[in-house]
Amino acid sequence: MTAMVKAEGVHKSFGSAHILKGIDLEVAPREVFCVVGPSGSGKSTFLRCINHLEKINAGRLWVDGHLVGYRQKGDKLYELKESEVAAQRRDIGMVFQRFNLFPHITALANVMEAPVQVKRETKAVARERAERLLDRVGLADKAGSYPSQLSGGQQQRVAIARALA
Questions:
Q1: 14, 19, 149, 157: most buried by Cβ count inside 10 Å?
Q2: 37-56 confidence digits (pLDDT tens)
Q3: Hey, how many other C-beta atoms are within 10 angstroms of the C-beta on 140?
Q4: Residue pair 28/12 in contact by the 8 Å Cβ criterion
């Protein structure tokens, strides 16, 4: 069975600060995995590396069996074009620490935005999924609310529904 996320020897540095020092892990499909650690320990950096928002300095990362951000020929790695990386990101959801909800649109519209704009789904299909996902995170009754009308926890759950969409 292909791992959903696999990391081998992942290193990431910012200047002289070596943040990730040889991360190895494998997360199976449907497995729940938590990354826990003190502030500044590299949790967010690692998550950003998984979808190539940060480029790793060494190692390999795969999502659903696909090498992230690179193509391998023989022993050599070649970085993908930005358009190819963007295509990979379409299938990798992420909830940011600050949630990054669009403040001028409702919770429902926030969840619908990427499927309509990026994946070119019809609004009807995206709306049905968004309503189902908001219900799944316990926010069906908040679909018409704007982010400023939601608590921090509710905003986080809208962001989770958006990542799942």
A1: 157
A2: 888 889 989 999 998 999 99
A3: 14
A4: no
Q: How many CB atoms lie within 10 A of CB 82?
A: 9
Alpha carbon separation from 46 to 6, 31, 40, 101, 137 (Å, rounded): 12, 18, 11, 22, 25
**b/e sequence 45-54, b meaning 16+ C-beta within 10 Å:** bbbbbbbbbb
Which helix (H) or strand (E) segment is 17 a member of? strand 17-27
Packing angle, helices 107-117 and 123-136, rounded to 10: 130
Closest C-alpha among 100, 92, 104, 106 to residue 141:
106
Q: N- to C-terminal Cα distance for the chain?
A: 24
**pLDDT for 1 beyond 80:** no
Q: How confident is the model at residue 67 (pLDDT cuts 50, 70, 90)?
A: very high
Can you spell out the DSSP letters for 67-105? ESSEEEETTEEEEPPHHHHHHHHTT-----TT----TTS
Q: How many residues does the chain have?
A: 165
With tokens 């995170």, the residue in question is 137
CA atoms within 13 A on the CB side of 150: 27
